[in-house]
Amino acid sequence: MKKVKTSLKGRKCNFPHCKHMLSIYNHETYCHVHLSQDIQGYKKKVHRI
Q1: Residue 46: enclosing H or E segment and its boundaries?
Q2: Region 37-48: what's the mean pLDDT?
């Protein structure tokens, strides 16, 4: 039986002010809501500060 890769439990979405907890099966840094949005533009604004 193949072992399923999991991420750490208790991780939160990196999008500012988002409080979603990420699934252990979601290896991304954003939740499903913010992953589908245009976060590239937002990240650029955040990095300039």
Answers
A1: helix 39-48
A2: 53
